[in-house]
């Protein structure tokens, strides 16, 4: 349960801090994919096959797996 809360917290922070589109490919430490990602941005986008990319202690990208 704690991991799930941490994951959703990372998702929320990620959408406040960055957008996936238009970024160059980059190395990440952790890629969580294949789940539903609910954004906290103005559009409240939902990615049914979403991904969250983490490097160090920062979310560097969030969006669809593709």
Question: What is the compact description of this entry?
Answer:
With 66 residues, the protein is an alpha+beta fold.
Task: Describe the structure in your own words.
With 66 residues, the chain is α+β, with helices and mostly antiparallel strands. It has one domain. 24% of the residues lie in helices and 39% in strands. Strand 1 (30-38) and strand 2 (46-55) form a beta hairpin. The longest helix has 16 residues, at 2-17. The protein starts with a helix and ends with a strand. Residues 16-20 have low confidence and may be disordered.
Features:
single chain, 66 residues, alpha+beta, 1 helix, globular
Write the layout of secondary structure elements.
Layout lengths: L1 H16 L12 E9 L7 E10 L2 E7 L2
Tell me the span between the first and last alpha carbons.
28 Å
- Provide mean pLDDT, rounded: 77
> What is the helix fraction of residues, given as a range?
10-25%
Count of alpha and pi helical runs: 1
Count of β-strands: 3
Low-confidence stretches: 16-20
What is the C-alpha radius of gyration, as a whole number of Å?
A: 11 Å
Q: Please report which band the strand proportion falls in: under 5%, 5-15%, 15-25%, 25-35%, 35-45% or over 45%.
A: 35-45%
Silhouette: globular
């Amino acid at each position: 349960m704690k991991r799930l809360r941490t994951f959703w917290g990372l998702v929320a922070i990620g959408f406040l801090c960055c957008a996936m589109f238009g970024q160059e490919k980059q190395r990440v430490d952790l890629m969580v994919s294949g789940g539903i990602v609910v954004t906290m941005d103005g559009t409240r986008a939902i990615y049914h096959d979403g991904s969250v990319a983490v490097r160090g202690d920062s979310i560097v990208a969030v969006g669809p797996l593709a």
